[in-house]
Design brief:
By secondary structure, the protein is α/β, with parallel strands linked by helices. It is 42% helix and 13% strand. The protein has 2 domains: 200 residues, NAD(P)-binding Rossmann-like Domain (Rossmann fold, 3-Layer(aba) Sandwich); 158 residues, Rossmann fold (3-Layer(aba) Sandwich), CATH 3.40.50. It has 18 helices and 14 strands. It starts with a strand and ends in a 22-residue tail after the last strand.
């Protein structure tokens, strides 16, 4: 099969490379000429484990191509994937200007039947807008022939996207014609042979499935963070609570890890977009509004602990940060909790020294010279008044406490991911503040005023 992918960002590049890996001929199109030339020499615009080798291998094998001209390949394609960005508008809705712009471009060049597939995360009704945009352009050219639009949402986890695509939990496809169904069935036949479920449904349901899935996962995160905050007040241990409820098969233990809130390119944007969709149809998604509110507060939790520890006097202090990306195994800092913490610390007159295994270049692009970016986790700790762990990279899990103790001014650690053992930290002479693990001298978030004595 011949496939065209429009957009070589996270979703588009992973999709294109992995489809090429199954034997399809894939053309990846992007208007960014520099990005395209870099891809031709194996320089990727994103960090994703395992992706670079697949891109290079399939490019060298002549199955994966990169270009800026959609007109060259649009009429050679059995299917065209739209995988461009859908950032949040000011009102929380998904900005579809890039999606509809691509649809119009397809319509300006299309001369034969194909299936146009929305791979970007888009709200309900987007497929109809794509169909209309293509039809309008065909009408301008006095053309009238059959084409189909389908929805095929992605379910890729950053840091594990290649495996997620090649070994999916499920493949969701929304179609409204038998011909489109046959094209998508053929495209995903290699996955069906490996017993991965291919689920067909109507287009509207497919569009909703993506948002509902991300909203459910975000809800689990905000729920466990809310419970963790209460555990800290009443003296319970969230790890014990998490194990207790996670062993229930109806609940499960995934996404029940307390922390500093969710970030990234999907959850924040998709929760906002789904809330906005509800409002557009005069329905208030009350649970998701609470999910977003809890997450917003949770991103302040480490700052508030630090501020309370130093009795509100942070001016001139130095804080070491371990981890800047919103999660491990990615350089993505979109909506990262680290950015909220950094902004709060800078506003309080704090000097920040930070280290991340992968996201340093991205951090410099976003933050410039506002903080000191150093080359090693221990270098960040030199003469720091405290250490804050924001992202749970593996290399942070077993630090040398003797070295750390010598480098820090004060043996104080604020753990935003609960990766350390409080007893072990105490044995090594550290003051340790985590999330939801019993009563501490730091009440975590601003909107909690309840004291343990009042319970």
């Amino acid at each position: 099969m011949k496939i065209t992918i429009i957009g070589t960002g996270y979703v588009g590049l992973v999709t294109g490379a992995c489809l090429a890996e199954t034997g399809a001929t894939v053309n990846c199109i992007d208007i960014d000429a520099v990005k395209i030339e870099n891809l031709k020499i194996g320089k990727l615009p994103i960090y994703e484990p395992g992706l670079e080798s697949i891109v290079k291998r399939n490019f060298e094998k002549g199955r994966l191509f990169f270009d800026t001209k959609l007109s060259k390949v649009v009429n050679e394609s059995d299917a065209i994937f739209i995988a461009v960005g859908t950032p949040s508008d000011e009102d929380g809705s998904a900005d579809l200007q890039y999606v509809t712009g691509v649809a119009r471009e397809i319509g300006r060049h299309l001369n034969q039947y194909t299936v146009v597939i929305t791979k970007s995360t888009v709200p309900v009704g987007t497929a109809s807008k794509v169909r209309q945009a293509i039809s309008d352009e065909l009408l301008k050219r006095d053309l009238d022939f059959k084409f189909d639009v389908a929805s095929n949402p992605e379910f890729l986890k950053e840091g594990n996207a290649v495996d997620d695509f090649l070994k999916p939990d499920r493949i969701v496809v929304g179609v409204d014609s038998e011909k489109a169904r046959k094209v998508l069935s053929r495209l995903y036949k290699p996955f069906v042979l490996n017993n991965h479920p291919l689920i067909f449904m109507d287009i509207t349901s497919a569009e909703m499935t993506k948002y509902a899935a991300n909203a459910m996962l975000a809800t689990k995160i905000s729920f466990i963070n809310d419970i963790a905050n209460l555990c800290e007040i009443v003296g319970a241990d969230i790890n014990s609570v998490r194990n207790g409820i996670g062993s229930d098969s109806r609940i499960g233990n995934k996404f029940l890890y307390p922390g500093v809130g969710y970030g990234g390119s999907c959850f924040p944007k998709d929760v906002k977009a789904l809330i906005k969709t509800g409002k557009d149809f005069n329905y208030n998604l009350r649970i998701l509004q609470a999910v977003e509110d809890v997450n917003k507060d949770q991103k302040n939790i480490i700052f508030n602990k630090i501020q309370n520890y130093f009795n509100g006097d942070l001016m001139g202090k130095t804080i070491a940060l371990w981890g800047l990306s919103f999660k491990p195994e990615t350089d993505d800092m979109r909506e990262a909790p680290s950015l909220v913490l950094i902004q709060k610390l800078l506003e309080s007159g704090v000097k920040i020294k930070a280290y991340d295994p992968i996201a340093m270049e991205e951090a410099e692009r976003i933050l410039g010279k506002q903080i000191d970016l150093v080359n090693d986790m221990y270098e960040a700790a030199i003469d720091a008044d405290a250490l804050a762990v924001v992202t749970e990279w593996k290399e942070f899990r077993l630090p040398n406490y003797k070295i750390l103790s010598k480098l820090l001014k004060h043996n104080t650690i604020f753990d935003g991911r609960n990766i350390y053992d409080p007893e072990e930290l105490a044995e090594n002479g550290f003051e340790y503040f985590s999330i939801g693990r019993g009563k501490t001298n730091c009440i975590s978030i601003n909107n909690i005023n309840t004291k343990i004595e009042k319970l």
